[in-house]
Amino acid sequence: MNPSATAPAERPPVGGPGGDPRISVRNLWKIFGRNAGSVIGTENEHLDRDTVRERTGCTVAVRDLSFDVHPGEIFVVMGLSGSGKSTLVRCLTRLIEPTAGRVLLDGEDVGACTPRQLRELRRHRMAMVFQHFGLLPHRRVLDNVAYGLEVRGAGRAERHARAREMIEMVGLAGYEDVRPGRLSGGMQQRVGLARALAVDPDVLLFDEPFSALDPLIRRDMQREVLRLQRELDKTAVFITHDLSEALKLGDRIAIMRDGALVQMGTAEELVGRPADDYVRDFVEDVNRTDVLTVRWLMRPPRPDEPLDGPAAAPRTVVRDVVPLLSNSTAPVRVVDGDRLLGVVGREDVLRAIAEDLSDGATKAAADAADGRAATAAPEA
Ligand SMILES: Nc1ncnc2c1ncn2[C@@H]1O[C@H](COP(=O)(O)OP(=O)(O)O)[C@@H](O)[C@H]1O
Ligand SMILES: [Mg+2]
Known about the structure:
The protein is an alpha/beta fold. The chain is 43% helix and 19% strand. The chain starts with a helix and ends with a helix.
């Protein structure tokens, strides 16, 4: 089985919006520049980023964002460079001070924290993994990983024991005494990950942590994040500009453009129903059968349909029901335990695949027509 193809289907369901969110962001704004206060609540607040910059000299880096992140969830924020992702993730711990709006961590207002409470929060509850690793070059791996514990006053024996445990967990046992500069990029980021995990935070914040890594190493690291998140039950906010990374990791994905939220949803919501051309551009090349699930395709059975077909769990991806249907004329039953949720027949799968093909076919036809038009024009 191809793990990358089935990864989205294997993700455990996320505790829905019913439970208390770990992080709540409400109407968050960050405006860089001297007259930042003169934008929100004025007519300027509705203008696009370039116009605001022309009129006021300010940059709207984050615009009126609201979302919740649930415990145990990997919440991905994606967008082109400059869309405000780093600013957003830094506003969560007030490494950048928001201009307006609220951030709640387990219901507690981060904006109201005193400097001391904020330090505590950063040392115990939220840890960050950076793109360029941010390791201390003169310290060996062990002391890099133990750094957060040292800062918060843990004794040497305790912090070393914990650091060794984390080094083992990220697969770097044996490298405790090596300086980071001697390690490959992927290994350095494992150190970064171990360092973040060492303080046992509730929330991990990742700002494009794997962008600097080679594709194969990157894939290993993505699997590592999924494994650790499952084993340790952390909540994560993961920033990336890479769609395949977002689809692989994200329980939900928020897409940003020019500081604003364009669409938020599961991988299949984005791929199956992109909100606008910006999102469509991102998801255009995705193989829909790897992302769309039977839950997405299913329908109520028709009265004349046989109900003795193969069963599949709701999160099974379309690619994996094709072999089931090739052996059965009855539709696949989508079941949750004993409960029948709906059915997916051959024609439903073909339609899901055909939409893929027809997109391509339409484009090929349009390109061909353009070509004809171009060659036809001189003759006319
Ligand atoms: N310290 C700053 N001062 C002024 N403008 C900034 C600052 N940091 C970021 N910006 C601007 O805010 C916008 C969002 O930047 P950023 O959050 O870094 O985006 P991303 O991480 O998505 O690439 C960009 O237009 C960027 O130039
Ligand atoms: Mg960034």
